[in-house]
Amino acid sequence: MNVKDHIPAISVRNLSKTYGHGRSAVTALKDVNLAVFPGEVVGLLGPSGSGKTTLLQCLGAILDPSGGKISLTGETLYENGWRNKDRRALRRDHIGFIFQRPYLIPFMDARDNIAFPPMLQGKPNKAARRRADELLALLEVAHRADARIEALSGGEQQRVAIARALANDPPVILADEPTAPLDSQRALIVMKLLQQTARQARTAIIVVTHDDNIIPLFERIYRLRDGILHEERGEGREMPSPAAAT
Ligand SMILES: Nc1ncnc2c1ncn2[C@@H]1O[C@H](COP(=O)(O)OP(=O)(O)O)[C@@H](O)[C@H]1O
Ligand SMILES: [Mg+2]
Prior knowledge:
With 246 residues, the chain is of the alpha/beta class. The protein has a domain at 40-61 and 87-233: Rossmann fold, CATH 3.40.50. It is 29% helix and 26% strand. A hairpin with a 2-residue loop joins strand 4 and strand 5. Helix 3 (110-120) packs across helix 4 (125-138). The protein starts with 9 loop residues before the first strand and ends in a 13-residue tail after the last strand. Magnesium ion binds next to helix 1.
């Protein structure tokens, strides 16, 4: 274990999010607290409409929360209305996002969709493509490397999107129902890859899921109900005290 493993990669304090104003306001998150440490893969469960996507989008610097504090790898992203002005760079360098839909770039082949984020970071094209090929092989889509996105099946597109999220070795991965378009065999491959990534690269990973097949694989589970978060199963890792949270 490394010294950095004691600082949460994802730290959330009293987070709230309300959509809209006045009588049409919808409070999607209420006073949410959580901490995910390097090397952890935690599950985020909850019924439809409970706030899972809202939470992930706040953590991913896609959506502004209404209050509270979010820190990623020790850097404050939001704090009660103050927001980090380098959110785009934070998102690019610190977060791998796996959305419910693949959102791939249609005019690039599978390999270049994966190689693109490292290229944006300034990695040489050749090294970025080599890394893409490695990930395509791990996700069993190597044979589709040169295919255009529209020629891929839904499951293949999702695996390319997962590879893209891993390509920059981000310290944080946020996955919103990543295995929904996959059969159970492939869902397990994806989960194993995420667990292996967490272990080897000390990545902190949150996976939103409904998939009964993969739920037993999580060491810790958070559950959202009507915007309120509860921790359900812990392996003894304590939440940091407010003073220690960054
Ligand atoms: N853009 C939005 N505008 C207004 N309400 C929203 C918006 N997005 C989500 N909501 C509401 O916030 C609540 C949480 O939604 P969401 O985070 O998508 O839940 P989940 O991902 O758990 O299904 C729901 O009541 C939903 O209707
Ligand atoms: Mg959702």
